[in-house]
Specification:
The protein is of the alpha+beta class. Helices cover 17% and strands 42% of the residues. The chain has three helices and 20 strands. The strands form two sheets. The chain has an 18-stranded mixed sheet that branches. Strand 16 and strand 17 form a beta hairpin.
Length: 274
């Protein structure tokens, strides 16, 4: 009985320790704002709206809106990036990741530097994203009012535009990698590299969408290429750090300088002191 009780207590202790460690290892990540063009606003969780400027920092629960002819680039701490186009609204529902061991140059990343979870919500508009290869424990999804996209590591474009006649158009284009379109039908729809899936939904009859899979049109490919070049340029100028470091945490105290060497004793003159 004593052994069973001790084993139970030990197992409970380990479970609590693992739980605390997991919660401590994953925290809200930061997103840097870059290359703003035109009017771009941030809607915070408390309802306040403020204009954004280059260098601002966002986190989960923030929402970004762009006006006509406006755009911006967002760089996430896990190395992924997004260019949000004009007349768009993107909410950061969740962005968490494990702390970094050291600052990282974003342009050198081929895969994310730590485990992360990203959930974005495109209410309307368009976006081009570059997601570094995710670890098996990570997830990255983008929701829209009619469907979602699950991403593992790719360059993609998503467009969701409702029209005035009661129809909505949801498009996913995959320039590199692999994307799954989710929630439009009972089964996921793969969007392979070089392909585009266009969904037309009648809001009066949303259970019968019209789905077309096609090669990415040249006009769309040009848009993706231009946006990807913007993202690459921004990443070359971005160093990813932990939030406390990027928020201006005090630098470590330098080690004290060694004391100056003792001056050499002057040579003795023969007979001196006698």
């Amino acid at each position: 009985m004593k052994i069973s009780a001790l084993r139970f207590i030990f197992c409970a202790f380990v479970a609590i320790a693992l739980s605390l460690n997991a919660s401590a290892q994953t925290a809200a990540g930061q997103i840097k704002v870059a290359k703003i063009e035109g009017q771009v606003l941030k809607l915070a969780a408390n309802g306040t709206t403020t204009p954004l400027k280059d260098g601002d920092v966002l986190t989960e629960a923030d929402t970004v809106t762009t006006g006509k002819g406006s755009s911006l680039v967002l760089v996430f701490m896990n190395g992924s990036s997004v260019k949000l186009g004009a007349d768009s609204r993107l909410a950061i529902d969740e962005f968490k990741m494990d702390p970094l061991a050291q600052p990282i140059n974003a342009s050198t990343l081929k895969a994310e530097p730590s485990v992360s979870k990203t959930t974005l919500n495109l209410a309307y508009g368009e976006m081009v994203g570059d997601v570094k290869k995710l670890s098996k424990s990570s997830s990255y999804s983008i929701k829209t009012p009619v469907g979602a996209a699950g991403i593992r590591g790719t360059i993609y474009r998503i467009v969701f535009r409702p029209s005035a006649n009661g129809k909505a158009f949801f498009t996913i284009s995959t320039a590199e990698g692999h994307v799954l379109m989710q929630g439009v039908t009972t089964q996921d729809i793969p969007v392979d590299e070089g392909k585009e899936v266009v969904v037309e939904i009648d809001t009066d009859n949303p259970t019968h969408p019209v789905i077309v899979t096609q090669d990415i049109p040249q006009a769309t490919a040009t848009v993706i290429q231009a946006a990807a070049q913007d993202l690459t340029k921004i990443l070359t100028e971005t160093v990813i750090t932990n939030p406390t470091e990027s928020a201006g945490a005090p630098a470590p105290t330098p080690a004290p300088a060694p004391p100056p060497p003792e001056p050499a004793a002057p040579p003795l003159t023969p007979g001196a002191g006698q």
